[in-house]
């Protein structure tokens, strides 16, 4: 098992520095996880069409089917893989290996709710929650310590902070259900230092609000003082909120909370990015980079028809002039990615194995210890897409049945 980084930094004079081209006015990105909240969670209206990513999923509907809100569309085949549900009524118009397109109708019919809260604590409850789209990996099996990760996941995203402020009823219901399943002796809410948020039944602990301290493994170490303790489980405040909403409503998860231009919105899953941009009147130039997720872990989208997924907590538009393009340039062995990596793996090495499709070698050198924090890619002087190579290798191994199951 690879550990968490405590490496000493080299003195600046020993680090290999490449000049930044004059025409690139570098994006001034900060590592702070503090954000100002501007309002309540605002609703994004349902789009005319939903675009659901179904690659590597098992389809549960087909072209031409009429669906209600909450109907199951697809499931991940892995043991903890969740179910994907329709966020609006409509008709399945197109299905291919990558996407399912649904033309939305005006109907508001939803699936029948399930009485989740009165279920026992056994496997039936877990299976039911999984079927309703809940991320059940942190809920399976008991633990002595349950940590709720209430940190904003990345700089510029304030979804966690907003949920802590506005999600009281659902967080309480989610925690009740989580504690019923995990039966922890100690429950901790980890928040940014200075944040006064609280959830009844959990002690609040402050964690340094600087990325990557919001990563689960680093939050666990900050709270317990241990690396990967076997008696500890961690659940994000977003997942706890979803669990609470499922518990209260009995309905599946069909939306996500996203930070867009500094404000938080409830977005139906599968909403195309172009619908968000039009609704919020956000202009995008043809050379801009649109990123789903955060500035470190997010991925630039190749089409504005791309639909929003449950784990997308942010949308960013980055002008091309502010960021040097990622490219398949050779590694110059500067070592910066190794210094940055909080998982203490060698990103330059595992990404090169991935690039040449030697996935088993990548796995042997710590591929699965990577947290996908994105710091290696962000700081690579050659602008190599290290995180993308790492994700590619993980996806290929998973598809071939050899990788770690989600
Ligand atoms: S994304 Fe890169 S820096 Fe982050 S844990 Fe993985 S290899 Fe390390
Ligand atoms: S991958 Fe990038 S940051 Fe890492 S050693 Fe190579 S050039 Fe340096």
UniProtKB/TrEMBL annotation:
Record-annotated 4Fe-4S ferredoxin-type domain positions: 322-352
Superkingdom classification of source: Bacteria
Source species: Pseudodesulfovibrio piezophilus (strain DSM 21447 / JCM 15486 / C1TLV30) (Desulfovibrio piezophilus)
Name by which UniProt lists this protein: Putative Electron transport complex protein RnfC
A GO MF term: 4 iron, 4 sulfur cluster binding
Pfam families: Fer4_17
Keywords tagged on the record: Iron, Iron-sulfur, Metal-binding
Keyword Zinc-finger: no
PANTHER family the UniProt entry points to: ION-TRANSLOCATING OXIDOREDUCTASE COMPLEX SUBUNIT C (PTHR43034)
Gene: rnfC
GO cellular component terms given for this protein: membrane
Entries under InterPro entries matching the protein: 4Fe4S_Fe-S-bd, 4Fe4S_Fe_S_CS, Ion_transpt_RnfC/RsxC, Nuo51_FMN-bd_sf
